[in-house]
Automatic annotation (TrEMBL), chains A, D:
GO terms for cellular component: cytosol. It comes from Acidocella aminolytica 101 = DSM 11237. Residues 8-202 form the DhaL domain. The keyword Protein transport does not apply. This is Dihydroxyacetone kinase subunit DhaL. PANTHER family: TRIOKINASE/FMN CYCLASE (PTHR28629), TRIOKINASE_FMN CYCLASE (PTHR28629:SF4). SUPFAM superfamilies: DhaL-like. Transmembrane segments: none annotated. Keywords: Kinase, Transferase. One of its GO terms (molecular function) is glycerone kinase activity.
Automatic annotation (TrEMBL), chains B, C:
Keywords: Glycerol metabolism, Kinase, Transferase. It catalyses: dihydroxyacetone + phosphoenolpyruvate = dihydroxyacetone phosphate + pyruvate. One of its GO terms (molecular function) is glycerone kinase activity. This is phosphoenolpyruvate--glycerone phosphotransferase. The keyword Kinase applies.
Length: 205, 333, 333, 205
C-alpha cells in the first residue's frame, strides 16, 4: 500500500464509503430508529451518493475535503450533515497546501476535523455521539507508526469507541430525549463514523 | 407500509408540486434548493419570517406560508432538517430589507443548519436574527439533553410573530415577541401508534394494543416512557399537569389552549381531549381566551395528540387575532 | 382499538362538549336532542341551511356551522344518521322565517330521518325544502342500489349554498343552486386501512399489507372491490377516470378540485395525489380554478383519500369565494 | 298460553326483545360490518333499551305500539330507526280501539306494520332487507289457526326469510353499494326482524 494519502486514494476512500453506507443504510437507520428518528442511514446514503457524483478531479486533498464537506452540508441535513460537513471542511483547511498526507499529517488533519465536529456540536466524548468514535480514532492515529498502521489503528479504535456507546446515556442530539432509555443501543453517528474510517483503511490498502 | 406515494425519494418533491398546484394564489414553490415563499415575496420594508424543518409535519411549516404568517418555509427530507443552502436561498428570497427572523425548533439538526445558513446570509449582508423554540416539557433535565424540543408552540409563535411583522414591527421587536411567546408556552404529547418514514418502510417502534408512548416528540421517536393506555380524561390530565406545573401563571390569566392532532387521530377524539383540558385549565383559574383544535403539527400518520398552553398578553392576543391567509391557517381576510 | 375516548357511548356527547368549549364564538351546542347551531341563530330573513349525519366524519357537518355555511348540524351516533327529533329541533331553532334547506347525503337512513323531520316541521308551519347529495361515482348501477352516495360533494354544496343564503337568496333559489352543485360534482374514494367504530371495538374489515378497498364510502364499509395496492399516481388515475367520464364537461371548463383525506392519511400524501389529479384534469383541458386539500369529510381514522371534481359556473364560483367563518372552513372574514 | 295479545303480553314481548337484542348486539353489528357500517346491533340495542325505559303502562295495544314506534324513531337513527319506527306506528294505527288482539287481528296489525316498512323504505321483498323476513311472517301468520300457531309460524317464517337473504344481492340500503359482494352474508335487518318475532313467540308462550 501507498505510504501517502493522495487524491486518488482519498477518492477511492469516498467511493468505498459511498458503497459501504449504501450497503448499511437500513442498519444505520434502524439504529437511529431505536433512539432517534430513523433517518441516519438515508441521510448519509444521500450525502455520500452526492459526494461521489460531485467529486470530479480535485487539485489536492484540501480541495477534495472542501468539496466533500460542502456537498455533505448541502445534501445530508439533520444533525449529521453539518457535523460531518464541518469535519471535512476543517480537514480541508488543515490540509491546505499539501499534495498528499503522510501518517503524521493525516493524524493532524483528522484531529482538526474532529475538533470541528466538537465545536459545531458543542459536544465532548462520553455523550453518545460520533465523537465517541472519532476522538479515540485521532488518539490511535497519533500513536501509530506509519500510514498503514495509523489507518488500521484509527479504524479499530473508532469501532471500539462506537461499541462503547451502547452502554452510554445520550446527552446530545435527539437520543438525549430518551434519557435512560437511550442506553443499550449503539449510537448511529458513532457507528457511521467507524464505518467511514474502516472504508479509508480498506481503500488505502 | 401502505402510503399514497410513488417512491420514497420523491415524496417531498411531489408533495411540493402538489402544494404549488393547489395554492398558487398564496404561495410559490421553488425547487433545487426546495423552499416555499409567499406569492408576493419579498415584501418591501417588512420583516420576513423563515422557518423550516423536516417534512412530514404538514401543515407545519409550508402550510403556514402566506400573508400574516411565514414568508418562507424550508422543507427537508421527511423528519430531516433542511440544509443551509435551502435556508440561505429562502432567506435571500424573502428579505425585504428589514431583516429576516429564523424561527427554529430546538433540534440539533435544525439549530446547526439554520446557524450555518444565518452565518452565510450575514456574510451576504442580510440582517438575520434567530429564535429557538423549545416548549416541550416532556424533556425534563435540559442540562443533560439537547434541551427541550420545539413542538406545538412553534405554530403559535409563527402566527403571532407573522401578525407583528405584517403590522410593521421591526426585526428586534418581532424577535423579542417570538422569545416572549416561547417563554410563555408549554407543550406535551403522546402517541397511540408509531408512524412509518417512507424511506424506512417500517414503523419506528412497536406498541402493544394497550400501550402508548408518553412524552413524544414529532419525529416518530419513542417518548419519555412507555405506559399503559388510559382514558382520554386521564391522559389529558397527565399532559396538562406538567404543562401547568411548568408554566408560570396566576389565576385569571388568559390562555390559548391548543389541542393538536399528530396525524392519525380523528377530530372527534381531539375534541374529547379539548373538553377535558379546558376543564382542567378552568379549574386552575385560567380563562381560555382562544383555542385551536386540529392536526397542525403532525408526525405523518401517527395517532396521538399534544397539548400546548400559551399564556397570553394583549400584544400576543392582538397578533393572534390579526388576519392570516395561508393554506393551513386562515382568518380575518 | 386504542382511541382517545372515555367510553364508546359518550364519544358524541363529549366531543360536542369539546366543540362548545373550543368554538363558543362561532357555534352553540344543544344537547338532548343534540344539534349545533351558529352562535347568532336564527338569522332573521335568511334561508337557513341544516345538514347532519352520523358522527365520525368531522369536520363535516358540525365543523361547517357558522356564517356563510350551515346554520345547524345534527350529529347522530358514530356513522348513524341522526333522528327526526334532532333534525326537527335544529330546523325550528334556525328558521329565520325564510325557510330551511335540508342538505341530505343520500343514504337510506339519512334520507328517511330527514324526510320524517321535514314532514313534522312542515306540520309546524316551517317551510322546508330538501336536496339530496349523491355524487359518488363508485356506485354504478343506481337502479339496483339505494342510488349514489353523498360524499365529498356535500362539503362543496354546503359552502356554496351557505354563501348564497348569506347573500339573501330565497329558499327556492338556494335549493336550486344546491341541486346544480350536486349535478355538477362527482367523487370517488379508496381506503388503505379500515377504521374502528368505538362501539364495535374492532375494524370493520381487514386488509392485507398490499390490498386496498376501492370505491369506498365514508362509513368504514368495504368498497366496490378489493384491489392490489398501486402507486399514488396510478390510484389518482383510477379515481379521476370514472369521475371525468361521468361528469359532463367540455374542454376549458373551470373546475374545483378537492382532494379529501379520509382521516388517517397525512397531508403530505394528499398533496402527492392532488399533484397527479391536477395533471390529469389539465390533460383533459380543464382549468383548476379553485382547490381544496385536506381531511374535510372523514371516516374516523381510516387511511385513504377521495377526489371530488366540481364543474364551476360564475354563480358557484362567487359563492365559493364568499366569506365563511366556521371551525372547519374559514376565509374572507 | 293466552289466546290474546294484550298489554301485559306485548310489554313482556318488548322486554324480551330488549334482552335478546342486547345479547346479540355484537352479532347483529358484525353482520352489518360485513355488508354495511357495523352499527345495526348498537342502533337496536339503544332503541329497545329506550323502549323498555319509556313504555310505562299504556292504555291499550294501540298506545303501546305508538310509544314503541315514536321511541324507536327518536333513538335508533340510521335506516332501521325510521323503518322499525314506522312499523310500530302503523301497527298502532291498525290496532286502534282494540284492548287485545286475537290471531286474525294480530295478522292484520302486523301486515299494516310491514306495509308501513315497505312504504317508508320504498322496498319490495327480494331486495335483501328486513322485508324478506317480515313479508313471509305476515303470510305465515295469516295462514295459521290460533294465536300460538300464528306466532310460531310467523317467527319460523321470518327466520327462514332471514336465512334466505344470505344468497341475495342487496338492492336497498347501504349493502346495495357492495353489489355482488353483498351476497354470502345474512341481512342484519332481516336477522333482527326474525329475532323480534321469536321474542314475541317466546313472550306469549
Ligand atoms: N451535538 C452533537 N455533537 C456531535 N454529534 C452529534 C450531536 N448531535 C447528534 N450527533 C450525532 O448525530 C447522529 C444523528 O444523525 P442524524 O440521524 O443524521 O440526524 P438527526 O438526529 O437530525 O436525525 C447521532 O447519532 C450523533 O452521533
Ligand atoms: N329501503 C329499505 N327498506 C327496508 N329495509 C331497509 C332499507 N334500507 C335498509 N333497510 C334495512 O336496514 C338494515 C340496516 O339498518 P341499520 O344498520 O340500523 O341502518 P344503516 O344502514 O343506516 O346503518 C338493513 O340490514 C336492511 O334490513
Ligand atoms: Mg436521525
Ligand atoms: Mg432527522
Ligand atoms: Mg349506520
Ligand atoms: Mg348499519
Amino acid at each position: 500500500m501507498s505510504e501517502l494519502l493522495d487524491v486518488p486514494v482519498l477518492t477511492a476512500w469516498l467511493k468505498r464509503a459511498d458503497e459501504m453506507v449504501a450497503a448499511r443504510q437500513t442498519y444505520l437507520s434502524d439504529l437511529d430508529a431505536a433512539i432517534g428518528d430513523g433517518d441516519h442511514g438515508a441521510n448519509l446514503a444521500r450525502g455520500f451518493h452526492a459526494v461521489t457524483a460531485k467529486l470530479g478531479t480535485p487539485a489536492d486533498p484540501a480541495a477534495l475535503f472542501k468539496t466533500v464537506g460542502m456537498t455533505l452540508i448541502g445534501t445530508v441535513g439533520g444533525a449529521s450533515g453539518p457535523l460531518y460537513g464541518s469535519m471535512f471542511v476543517e480537514m480541508g483547511k488543515a490540509a491546505a497546501g499539501k499534495s498528499a498526507l503522510d501518517a503524521a499529517a493525516w493524524a493532524d488533519v483528522l484531529e482538526a476535523g474532529v475538533k470541528g465536529v466538537a465545536a459545531r456540536g458543542k459536544a465532548v466524548p462520553g455523550e453518545k455521539t460520533m465523537l465517541d468514535a472519532l476522538t479515540p480514532a485521532v488518539a490511535a492515529a497519533k500513536g501509530a507508526a506509519g500510514l498503514s498502521a495509523a489507518l488500521s489503528a484509527a479504524a479499530e479504535a473508532a469501532l471500539q469507541g462506537a461499541e462503547a456507546t451502547v452502554s452510554m446515556i445520550a446527552r446530545k442530539g435527539r437520543a438525549s430525549y430518551l434519557g435512560e432509555r437511550s442506553a443499550g443501543h449503539a449510537d448511529p453517528g458513532a457507528t457511521s463514523a467507524a464505518l467511514l474510517l474502516s472504508a479509508l483503511a480498506e481503500a488505502a490498502r | 407500509m401502505k402510503k399514497l406515494i410513488n417512491a420514497a425519494d420523491k415524496v417531498v418533491d411531489e408533495a411540493l408540486a402538489g402544494m404549488a398546484a393547489a395554492h398558487g394564489d398564496l404561495i410559490k414553490v421553488h425547487f433545487e434548493p426546495n423552499f416555499i415563499t409567499r406569492a408576493d415575496a419579498p415584501v418591501r420594508g417588512k420583516v420576513a419570517l423563515v422557518s423550516g424543518g423536516g417534512s412530514g409535519h404538514e401543515p407545519l411549516h409550508g402550510g403556514f406560508v402566506g400573508r400574516g404568517m411565514l414568508d418562507a418555509a424550508c422543507p427537508g427530507a421527511v423528519f430531516t432538517s433542511p440544509t443551509p443552502d435551502q435556508i440561505l436561498a429562502a432567506t435571500k428570497a424573502v428579505d425585504g430589507g428589514a431583516g429576516v427572523l429564523h424561527i427554529v425548533k430546538n433540534y440539533t439538526g435544525d439549530v446547526l443548519n439554520f446557524e450555518m445558513a444565518a452565518d452565510l446570509a450575514k456574510d451576504e449582508g442580510v440582517k438575520v436574527e434567530a429564535v429557538i423554540i423549545d416548549d416541550d416539557v416532556a424533556v425534563q433535565d435540559s442540562l443533560y439533553t439537547a434541551g427541550r424540543r420545539g413542538v406545538g408552540g412553534t405554530v403559535l409563535a409563527e402566527k403571532i410573530c407573522g401578525g407583528a411583522a405584517e403590522a410593521g414591527q421591526d426585526l428586534a421587536a418581532v424577535a423579542e415577541l417570538c422569545r416572549k411567546v416561547n417563554s410563555n408556552v408549554r407543550s406535551m404529547g403522546l402517541a397511540l401508534t408509531p408512524c412509518t418514514v417512507p424511506h424506512a418502510g417500517k414503523p419506528s417502534f412497536t406498541l402493544e394494543e394497550d400501550e402508548i408512548e408518553f412524552g413524544v416528540g414529532i419525529h416518530g421517536e419513542p417518548g419519555r416512557k412507555r405506559i399503559k393506555m388510559e382514558s382520554a380524561d386521564k391522559l389529558a390530565e397527565m399532559l396538562m399537569e406538567p404543562i401547568i406545573a411548568d408554566l408560570p401563571f396566576k389565576s385569571e390569566d388568559k390562555v390559548l389552549l391548543f389541542v393538536n392532532g399528530l396525524g392519525g387521530t380523528p377530530l372527534v377524539e381531539l375534541y374529547i381531549v379539548f373538553r377535558k383540558a379546558a376543564e382542567i385549565a378552568k379549574a386552575h383559574g385560567l380563562t381560555i381566551a382562544r383555542s385551536l383544535v386540529g392536526p397542525y403539527i403532525t408526525s405523518l400518520e401517527m395517532a396521538g395528540t399534544s397539548i400546548s398552553l400559551l399564556k397570553l398578553d394583549d400584544e400576543m392576543l392582538r397578533y393572534w387575532d390579526a388576519p392570516v391567509v395561508t393554506p393551513g391557517l386562515r382568518w380575518g381576510a
